[in-house]
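Retro notes (design track)

What went well: tokenization of the new backbones is finally stable.
What didn't: we kept losing track of which sequence belonged to which structure.
Fix going forward: every design gets posted as structure first, then sequence, in one message. First example under the new rule, 116 residues:
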């Protein structure tokens, strides 16, 4: 009788150990999920927002707008196609750039300098 009682206690304690182990497996994923959300909000989301702003700026680009390129050249837009922007960087000096290489509006740079 005592052996039967001890056997039932051992079997039931083993079942509880397996349940606790299953819960621990799920709890091991919680830090990974938290790291993913932190990574998303600190890295992916701001980069996506910046890309969307750049895309909108390129779509609204017009002749006569003063822009800067990603290589640091400042010029005025004198020609536009789907993929190429022609900038006038000095009087009668025109350079063609890929539209993807336009960094932004130069007015933003000069506004930052004025605030200092």
């Amino acid at each position: 009788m005592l052996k039967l009682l001890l056997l039932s206690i051992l079997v039931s304690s083993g079942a509880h150990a397996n349940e606790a182990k299953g819960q621990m497996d799920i709890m091991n994923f919680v830090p990974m999920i938290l790291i993913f959300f932190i990574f998303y909000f600190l890295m992916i989301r701001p980069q996506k927002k910046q890309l969307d702003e750049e895309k909108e700026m390129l779509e609204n680009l017009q002749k006569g707008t003063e822009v800067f390129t990603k290589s640091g050249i400042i010029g005025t837009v004198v020609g536009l196609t789907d993929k190429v922007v022609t900038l006038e960087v000095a009087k009668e000096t025109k350079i063609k750039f890929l539209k993807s290489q336009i960094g932004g509006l130069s007015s933003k740079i000069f506004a930052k300098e004025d605030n200092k």
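Added context from the reviewer: Residues 1-60 form one domain.
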